[in-house]
Every structure is written in C-alpha cells, then in structure tokens.
Design a protein that fits this description.
Helix content of chain A: 40-55%
Radius of gyration of chain A: 20 Å
Number of domains of chain A: 2
Oligomer: homodimer
CATH architecture of the largest domain in chain A: Alpha-Beta Barrel
Chain lengths: 366, 366
C-alpha cells in the first residue's frame, strides 16, 4: 500500500471536432497521464488536462511539477494516508490539475488494492449519471444538428450551450433555435466562460427569459465583482461558479459575496479528496451543484462519473460527461459508451478502466 | 458486505464520579450499544449515548427508532452504499444519536471487512490526538485537585471548564483558581451549556479576560439570537457552537448569522459520514474546530479519536476524549489508556476494539 513511484506521461490526441468557447479553443488534447505505483505492484491512473487559459498550467508544467515536487513528496506514503498526501501537495500553491490527477490516481490505486470501485469508496449512491452535452460555438443550424445527433445517437436530452460571443445575439439565436428545434423536453443552460460583461449578460438573459433555461454559468468575470453581484441578484435561475471557484475557500468567497448561487465540481480540477470538500461545503451552504467537464478524455470522464454518482446531490442534475466523443481516439482499452442518455461506471475495482499500452506508446510525447 | 441485521442493546453503567453542568447531570450511562451484522459474519459496533436535555432522545427511544425504522431501512444494503444509508436514515427527522451510532457501526463493519482502520478509511492524517479533559461543576479547590490529578496521572494539559452557574462568580472563581493552581502552561476554555444570558456571559468573559482562555462555548442559548450575536461580536476568542449545530445547515445558519465563530464536532451526534460533512463545511468556511465529547463511553471515545485524528484541522486542538475515566466500568475487553496527554488509536481493523460479552451480559437491560 506504499507509493513507490509516480509517473507523469505527456501525450497528445487530436480532436475530431475542435471545441470553441469564449475563453479558448481546443484542437488537440495535450494531456498528462499520471500513474501511481505501489509496493504491491498496483498501478493507479488518472488524467491531467492542462488548461492554460483557465488555471495557467501547461502540459510541460504539469510533468515538471509532478516530477520535481509532487512525486518526491508522496513517495513512501501509504494509500491510506490521503490527508497527508493532500497536505503535502498543498504546500505548493496553484497547480490544481496536476494535484487532482495525482490524488485521483491514488484513489484508483486504493480501489484496485482493496478490490472495490472508487465510487463505492466515496459513497456509492448510484452507479450512473445522466449526461449533459456541451455545444461549442457554431452557427444555429450546426449546433441544432449536433444536439439532434447527440439526442438520436446517445439519448442525451440535456445541453450546455457555450455563449459569450459579440454581439450576444449570435448566442441568443442559437439558444432559441435549440429550443425551437428540440422542443420543451430538452434541458438547456448556458455557459459564458466570462465572455460577456455583466450588462451584456443581463440583456442576453432577459432576451432568453422565455426559453426555460435551467442555469447560467460564468457569464461575466468574477473579478468584475460588483457587476457580477448585480447580475446574479436579478437572475431567476442559479448562477453557477466554475473556474472562479477552484478551491473551497473560493466557493465561500464567491457565494457569500453574492457572486454565485451554484457550484460546478470538476474532478480534473479538485480530484476526489478536494471535490468531496467542495461537495460537502456546497451541500452545507444549501447550493445546487453540477458535475462539470474540463474537456476531459475518457479517463477524466470516468473520474467525473465515479465521483458524481457517489452522492445524491451531484446525481440530481445531468453531469457533463460527453466531451470525449469529440476526440479522434483515446487511451482506454475499451471505449466508454453513452447509452439512453446515461454513462455507467465500469464494474471493475478502482476506476474500472485500463490503459491500452499500444495507444499510449503511439500518442506519448516523451 | 450486505447488512443482514441491526441490534440496539440498551445498557446502563453507573458513573463513579457524576458529571454536573448547566444543562443537566449524568449519574448513570444509560446508553445503547448498536451492532451491525453483515452476510460475511462481520459485526460492526458503536455506542449511542442519548441526551434528552440536548437532543430529546431517550435510551428507549433510540432502541425503538432503530428497531422499528432504521434497521428495516438499511438491512439489505451493502456497506459501500453509505450515501444510500445516510439518505434513508435522514428520511426520519431528528434522532441524531441513533443515526450516528448506526452510521459508525457501518463504518466499523466496513473497516473490519476490508482489514483497515476506520481512521485510515476516513483520511489517515495521524494515529492519535492530544486529550482535553472536561471539568464539571464543583468547588474551586475540588476542580483544581481534579485537574492536577488528570495532569499528574494522564499528562493532560488542556481543560474545558463547565460554567453557566448563578452567580457567574461561582465559575469565574474556578477558572481563576485553575489558572493560578496549574500555571500558564495549561490550556483553558469554558463551556456554558447555555446557562448564562448574553449579558452575564459578556460580564463573565470580561472578568476572565486576564486568564488567557482559548475558546468560549455555548455560553448563552442560540435562540437568544440577537443577544448571542452581540456577545460573539465582542469576544476576542472563538465562540464554539456545539449543541446549536447538530447538522451542516445549522452550522451555516449559526455562523452566517454571526452567532458562532467555531464548531464542535461530536461523532456521537453526527457519526462519521455527517461529521465529515460538518468538517469539510467548517474548513471551507474557514472555522476552527474542536472534537467534542458527548459524555462518551470508551467506545464513543474511540469513535471520536478515530475521526479527529483522520484530519489535520481536527488534530490541531486537543480532543475531548476523557469522560470515560469517570465511569465505574465499560464494555470494552481492553480499557483505553490516556498516556502523556494523548489517546492513540488501536492497531486493529475498523475501530480496533471489542465488546466483552460478560460485561455486556452484566450491564444490558433488555
């Protein structure tokens, strides 16, 4: 049960369909596969998707911080000493994606060692989540066609629509076309990735007030403190804080400051140990929660569903679990499948998935 | 791993030294031993100490709610389905001590099944806590003698002093005598169990301002809402909410309402599953935390230290772990021992302790 080594393996897989949104664009998944080895010969895995435009991390930086700081800090600790691991990683500030992947690989190794799923170790509420699909910037017709394809192929009926373009009518036209094209039975919410100002956001939300949106997420920057508070106060749907709440303390600040009324939990950002802290904090504060997607690979999506399905609060809403569909390939031996709008956890121990060595050899960059 | 039966066994053990405090007095430990049986033949145990003056539960009531509602709700579930168990128990309101014991017995059974300590399953920060001893109402001389005995016999140097009597000078004289008798090296804090008004509390704290207190706990009732907020605002030490925060939502209300600035976590009240929720909430809000004692038996104290030692935040302060010293006997096969001011977790799986069948046969009341 002792950690003997940590590997950080950079790899790159192109997207078949690049995702465009207000804060950036992703054409190639330049991720880092993290592997934690123990003295029992167990190997735990997790994926680190660096997002420079959100957290400042790069692929090379994730490898460097794991190799030079995090691996030496945790080698020799037992898999049960997770609060020690958590504390040692947090001696270094920032680097959320690198810390999260290491934490999740430890949990995977723990599950494999004990012979139980990570989902069960975390809480075991359910073995599946409903899936929400994210629609990146495109024309109204193309985005409606994409949503219809997701509905018809995978049974997905919840869509998060990327907004935040100028003029805002580019986006409101898309949301209106989606509602008209897909009808009242689908659930729609919008994510601005901080692309609008507070007043643009207010105007756009007013113009979409007849479209039955469920949430609005990060429409304007959290650093526009008073503007965002002004916006959040007037909305009649929860305002989700996502990239503005990478830590529990940030949740407290944003929510008590009136700048958010719901929280997105991303395991790629807060791992399992810190995601549970965010979950219990949000639950205790009485907030709604959505399991978010950091444009995750299949391995990242498995982590999201393993955590989200472990608790009742995170299972209420569809989780953002489908971005991997846009990748041209993946590292897992058996691809994930979204059926009837749901993603189900694999039955095996830990995260229940394995890395294909040939694919890793093909895509690795070191 | 499936729960096949839940037993709730009432038992009574007299106190050698009754504990007196503002909200009540305890002469006999009229507790309920909870045992959770699984289809693997594993038995998990925990202790339910009913506190009618705090939560309204009685010994017979705890047995009744477990037998008639909680046991049927959880039998058939697996030990890994803890969030399901949590949700099913919470369909019934109140009854915190009954729910907590059942939850902790499930965790003990899980630890025994997997072959790991509950402390490790929870987080594994450390294997021990420093001990804080609670001093009940008596004369200054008697309370100083008791503190000296605890220091000299067990190495304890942190004392929680029960206050809340009228006139308040009965108590301030005790605290002054303790500081003078034991010197600057001991840590002292006070617990009013809601015995004073807000203005009495303010006056008493002013009169003790030179005594270097660490905390003040529940000096006046939480339902004296504005009075308590007025008091808390003027104190220069954290004001611990204890019996006023039996749930995470209560923590949020009391803290955001300005009626508390720290939180007591009692595993006898919130078990392990809900205590972790309170812990992560308090941590995310940036509050200090103390592991409290519900006048616990040895089994209850083992639960407190198993949880408290699992996390860094709960390990910063001494935990209230010594009330069992005042009982005339206990159910465990091997008595706990406080050495050099510390209580250490037993090495075995689960909670690491066993019930003595002869003692249980002797003290059980059904």
């Amino acid at each position: 049960m002792k950690i003997t080594a940590v590997e950080a393996i950079p790899y790159a897989i192109p997207y078949a369909k690049p995702l465009k949104f207000a804060s950036g664009e992703v054409r190639v998944a330049e991720h880092v596969l993290v592997r934690v080895h123990t003295d029992d010969g167990v190997v735990g895995i997790a994926d680190a998707p660096p997002r420079p435009f959100t957290y400042g991390e790069t692929q090379a930086g994730v490898v460097a911080v794991i190799d030079s700081l995090f691996a030496p800090a945790v080698v020799g600790l037992g898999l049960m000493e997770r609060e020690q691991i958590h504390a040692r990683l947090n001696r270094t500030v920032a680097n959320p994606v690198a810390k999260a992947a290491l934490d999740m690989a430890v949990w995977d190794a723990l599950g494999r060692t004990l012979g139980y799923q990570v989902n069960e170790l975390l809480g075991g509420w359910s073995d599946r989540m409903r899936v929400s699909h994210m629609l990146g910037f495109d024309s109204p017709a193309a985005m409606v066609a994409e949503a219809e394809r997701m509905r018809d192929t995978h049974g997905i009926t919840t869509f998060k629509v990327k907004v935040g373009r100028h003029p805002h009518t580019l986006d409101t036209a898309v949301v209106r076309a989606l509602r008209e094209g897909l009808g009242e039975e689908v659930e729609l919410y919008v994510d601005g990735n901080r692309g609008w100002s507070a007043s643009e956001s207010a105007r756009a939300m007013r113009e979409m007030s007849d479209l039955g949106l469920t949430f609005a997420e990060e429409l304007c920057p959290a650093d526009d403190v008073l503007g965002r508070r002004w916006l959040v106060q007037q909305l009649d749907v929860p305002f989700i804080a996502d990239e503005s709440v990478p830590t529990p303390a940030d949740v407290t600040r944003e929510v008590l400051g009136g700048s958010a009324t719901a929280v997105s939990i991303k395991t790629s950002r807060t791992g399992f140990t810190q995601s549970r802290r965010v979950h219990h904090l949000a639950e205790g504060l009485g907030l709604e929660v959505v399991m978010g997607n950091q444009i995750d690979s299949q391995l990242g999506s498995v982590c999201t569903v393993s955590f989200g399905a472990a608790f009742e609060l995170t299972s209420r809403r569809a989780g953002e679990l489908s971005n991997f569909l846009d990748m041209s390939d993946d590292l897992l031996t058996e691809p994930l499948e979204i059926r009837d709008g749901e993603l189900t956890i694999r039955p095996g121990a830990g995260l229940g998935v394995e890395i294909d060595p040939d694919k890793l050899a093909h895509y690795r960059q070191d």
